[in-house]
Design a protein that fits this description.
CATH topology of the largest domain: Jelly Rolls
Helix content: 10-25%
CATH architecture of the largest domain: Sandwich
Low-confidence stretches: 3-74, 428-436
Structural class: alpha+beta
Largest sheet: 17 strands, mixed
CATH class of the largest domain: Mainly Beta
Distance between the termini: 15 Å
Number of domains: 3
């Protein structure tokens, strides 16, 4: 399904979708094959049609398939449950398309739990604000379906097509991992997680460079610009930046953040600020935190253009993480301790083009954002960007042109700027962070 967050932004490095689970089997006993063949023969005879070629092909498929694409159990009740789960997923996708086309979100209510229905409503609202004219599911492949009592899981590979008001069309294929629950005798979807595909590509050189002194291009992304460091265990990340003054001449969005994980993994713990420009030319600034795959949420820290903001994410022990945010200009602050299982595999300092669902929203005209005091704790030692060997990431558009490019790291080892170029930014597919 098209899932994500309506106010949305999605930062990150996309990762290659996890491969479908591989099941090892000992093969199908000959007796079972014979029984299957006899059953097929009887059914065919009863219907008056016997296709020997089809029977042979069917039997051979059972021999060749050590791991079925969709798991079913032997009992008719389990088989019926699997069929019911597949039906709900299919109807839910159709309902989302119709709901978007008719601007009637209630069409999605029958196949979703109350909480998931609200997420879908926000998703469609976000798609509308990003300039999506229509959405369509063009392909659905079943990977796996399992049923256990009143809960079920379904995995699909889905290709969605988004048509935007400017005439552009974007196709995206993602792995969808659905969770369903049985409510009042009917299956309903309670969650849909979509591992994303890698968008950070080493060695891609943009054809447009930032004014000033751009960093050498070591990697590019459709929605990230900034610096990232990996290699070792990261337990803290911090930086201070000035909330950019965004031009209200065209709709779009930007998000500025620091994070732990997510460069080469599916986990990401992040916090930052965001600007959204709507069609009427109104700019709205906000602060948020997010723990993938959960949706992000706004936090009660007011920010405005020109404010100096410091964000620090620190592991307290085990899965306890302290997120501390301070508006240095107004002296306002916000902090929270969250539970999150992190890979601790990387740290990031990023300016991002937000996304909704699977689509990346146009990057607004944010001008320049400056980071200072950027550092992280790796393997127990506090280190600056330079000491960490952090690598620059340039955000590019569909034509390979740089639309946001970081500068070289300053002599203090922990400061840099990210500049918006005059290259066109249009909605794209891809991205990692989902913002509701």
């Amino acid at each position: 399904m098209f899932e994500g967050d309506p106010t949305a932004t999605t930062p990150m490095t996309p990762l290659a979708p996890p491969p479908p689970p591989v099941r090892k089997g000992s093969g199908i006993p000959a007796g079972r094959l014979v029984a299957l063949g006899l059953l097929a023969f009887v059914l065919a005879a009863f219907s008056g049609r016997i296709d020997l070629g089809s029977l042979v092909s069917t039997a051979q498929s059972y021999v060749d398939r050590a791991a079925p694409a969709v798991q079913t159990n032997a009992s008719s009740s389990d088989t019926a449950a699997v069929a019911a789960v597949k039906d709900v997923v299919q109807r839910a996708n159709e309902a989302q398309v119709q709901a978007y086309a008719r601007n009637d979100p209630t069409l999605m209510r029958a196949t979703a739990t109350t909480s998931y229905y609200q997420e879908l409503v926000q998703t469609n609202q976000g798609l509308q604000s990003s300039g999506a004219q229509s959405i369509a599911l063009t392909k659905l492949e079943w990977v796996d379906v399992t049923v256990s009592g009143t809960t079920a899981n379904a995995v699909t590979n889905e290709t969605w097509r988004t048509t935007y008001t400017d005439g552009s069309v974007a196709d995206s294929t993602d792995r969808n991992e659905y969770t369903l629950v049985l409510q009042a005798g009917a299956w309903k979807i309670s969650a849909d997680v979509q591992p994303t595909t890698q968008i950070i590509t080493p060695g891609t050189a943009p054809s447009v460079t930032q004014p000033g002194t751009p960093a050498s291009v070591t990697s590019s992304s459709s929605n990230w610009s900034g610096y990232a460091a990996n290699g070792g265990t990261f337990t803290s990340v911090t930086a201070t930046w000035t909330v950019p003054t965004v031009s209200a001449t065209s709709s779009g969005a930007d998000a500025t953040w620091v994070g732990i994980g997510g460069l080469t993994t599916n986990d990401l713990l992040q916090a930052g600020t965001q600007a959204m420009v709507d069609g009427s030319g109104t700019v709205e600034y906000s602060s948020w935190i997010e723990m993938l795959p959960q949706s992000s949420r706004n936090v009660p820290l007011s920010v405005s253009a020109g404010d100096s903001v410091t964000v620090t994410i620190t592991q307290q022990g085990g899965n306890d993480w302290l997120i501390a945010m301070k508006n240095n200009t107004t002296n306002g602050s916000y902090s929270v301790t969250v539970q999150y299982s992190s890979s601790n595999s990387s740290a990031e300092w990023v300016q991002e083009a937000p996304s909704v669902g699977r689509g990346v929203i146009s990057l607004d005209q944010f001008g320049t954002v400056k980071f200072s005091g950027a550092s992280a704790v790796r393997d127990g030692k506090t280190m600056s960007l330079s000491a960490l060997g952090a690598k620059a990431i340039t955000m590019i558009n569909g034509q390979g042109q740089a639309i946001a490019q970081p500068s070289t790291i300053a002599s203090d080892g922990s400061s840099f700027t990210i500049a918006r170029t005059d290259a066109t930014s249009s909605p794209q597919t891809g991205g990692r962070r989902r913002r509701p």
